[in-house]
Amino acid sequence: MISITEWQKIGVGITGFGVFFILFGILLYFDSVLLAFGNLLFLTGLSLIIGLRRTFAFFFQRHKLKGTSFFLGGVAIVLLRWPLLGMLLEAYGFISLFKGFFPVVFGFLGSAFNIPFLSTLFQKLQGSSSSMV
After folding, report:
1. Residue numbers of the domain that contains 38
2. What is the DSSP string of 37-56?
3. pLDDT values of the chain reduced to their tens digit, one per residue, 133 residues
4. In a domain, 132, yes or no
5. Considering the domain boundaries, does residue 1 fall inside one?
6. Residue 67 lies in a domain
7. Domain assignment of residue 131, yes or no
8. Which residues of 104-129 are buried (b: 16+ CB within 10 A; e: fewer)?
9. How many folded domains does the chain comprise?
10. Could you tell me which residue ranges are on the Lumenal side of the membrane?
11. Are 69 and 93 in contact (CB under 8 A)?
């Protein structure tokens, strides 16, 4: 069984608050203060979850430098109160950094259709027509 330290639990909470502030900042028409606060919380929480050394090693791998520069550059642009441009740069950097994780996430979401309760829920949401045409 995986043991989770108290610092990692705090990191999950801080990362969750960071994602919340980022989404709330986007909902409020790219409020630069909320986006900047969310970015700082997200990066702090990530470093608490996986550790400073692993965070640094993840972001500064040779094949991920382009994504890292766009992501951290976007964070800097948001901190300089250019939220729309900063979030666009961050989004591109995020996709570049985490593109290796997307197949795993989509595979997990695809397996959610095999869970008994969720499969019936998805069928009800889909409607009575099971035809693909």
Report:
1. 6-126
2. HHHHHHHHHHHHHH-HHHHH
3. 788 999 999 999 999 999 999 999 999 999 999 999 999 999 999 999 999 999 999 999 999 999 999 999 999 999 999 999 999 999 999 999 989 888 887 777 777 777 777 777 767 766 655 555 5
4. no
5. no
6. yes
7. no
8. eeeeeeeeeeeeeeeeeeeeeeeeee
9. 1
10. 31, 90-92
11. yes
